[in-house]
Amino acid sequence: xxxxxxxxxxxxxxxxxxxxxxxxxxxxxxxxxxxxxxxxxxxxxxxxxxxxxxxxxxxxxxxxxxxxxxxxxxx
Length: 75
Known about the structure:
Elements: H1 2-35, H2 42-56, H3 62-74
Helix pairs in contact: 2-3
InterPro entries: SHOCT
Domain SHOCT: 49-72
Pfam families: SHOCT (PF09851)
């Protein structure tokens, strides 16, 4: 009976260790992702993304795209 309890305790501890490692790894990846690159305002990023989408859909010309991209970078 004591061997069975010891086995269960070992399995539970290994499971907890596994989830701990996953959590620490995921947290590290999130922190690295947030620190990479310059800080960008959320509005500016959304505007740039919308500009890219409009250009990709053919709604604006290359010249319009480039000019608006320059305009957005000035803010």
